Amino acid sequence: MGAIAAPTPPRRVRLLGALTGAGLVAAGVLAYILLTGGGGAPAPAAEQAAGVPPVVDAAGLVRRSGVRVVHVAMSGDGGLVDLRFQVIDPDTANVVHEPAYPPEVVDEDSGVVVNELLMGHRHSGRMLAGQTYYLIFSNPGNLVQRGDHVTVVLGDARLPHVPVE
User: Fold this and answer.
1) What distance in Å separates the CA atoms of residue 27 and residue 41, rounded to the nearest whole number?
2) Cα dist. 127→1, 31, 101 in Å?
3) Which terminal CB of the chain, N or C, has fewer other CB atoms within 10 Å?
4) Cα distances (Å, whole numbers) of residue 121 to 20, 117, 144, 159, 163
5) Other beta carbons less than 10 A from residue 110's beta carbon
6) Beta strands per DSSP E along 28-157
7) Number of C-beta neighbours around residue 3 at 10 A
8) In the Cβ-directed half-sphere of 84, how many Cα atoms lie within 13 Å?
């Protein structure tokens, strides 16, 4: 009969597993850095060069787009996203409906972009100061949900951290 090999001590197996796991994590981080060109969020200048509107606060949204977000809410049993905005500066607010700056709602957790307006709805005519207008987006699969936080893209600006009612 041949000799039976003794099993590898558990400590050695755990150490080998930890080293293998650490190597895989390091390889993943290196791959991410190489694939994203350095990792991290793109610099604001790079975003603007790529045509991505800058992130602003509520006052910045008014300055850039002439509107104030009133609320974002679910409608139609979750199948619709209702975005309400009030016009502060009618001359600037018309940018909300320009094809160069299509309105969007982006779920901050999942990255889902909701940008299909229900039945292609667009306001026509001059907007009035103080008037509240709405945009209704299709929400296929109810991906954006009540309680989420979204980034609202209106005109040439992005307003982050808007709660969904």
Assistant:
1) 20
2) 93, 49, 17
3) N
4) 54, 6, 20, 22, 23
5) 11
6) 67-75, 80-87, 104-107, 113-114, 132-138, 149-153
7) 5
8) 12
pLDDT tens-digit readout, 34-76: 343 444 334 444 444 456 889 999 999 999 999 999 999 999 9
- pLDDT, mean of residues 126-136: 93
What are the tokens at 71?
Answer: 């609320």
Structure tokens at 160: 């982050």
What's the token pair of residue 37?
A: 């060109």
Token representation of residue 20: 């293998």
What letter represents residue 129's amino acid? A
Tokens linked to 119: 């039945």
pLDDT: which is higher, 82 or 32: 82
Residue 106, CA distances (Å) to 22, 27, 59, 79, 143 in order: 34, 31, 20, 15, 10
Binned at pLDDT 50, 70 and 90, residue 6 comes out as low
Cβ pair 96, 85 in contact under 8 A: yes
Spatial neighbors of 140 by CB under 8 A, at least 6 apart, are: 79, 116
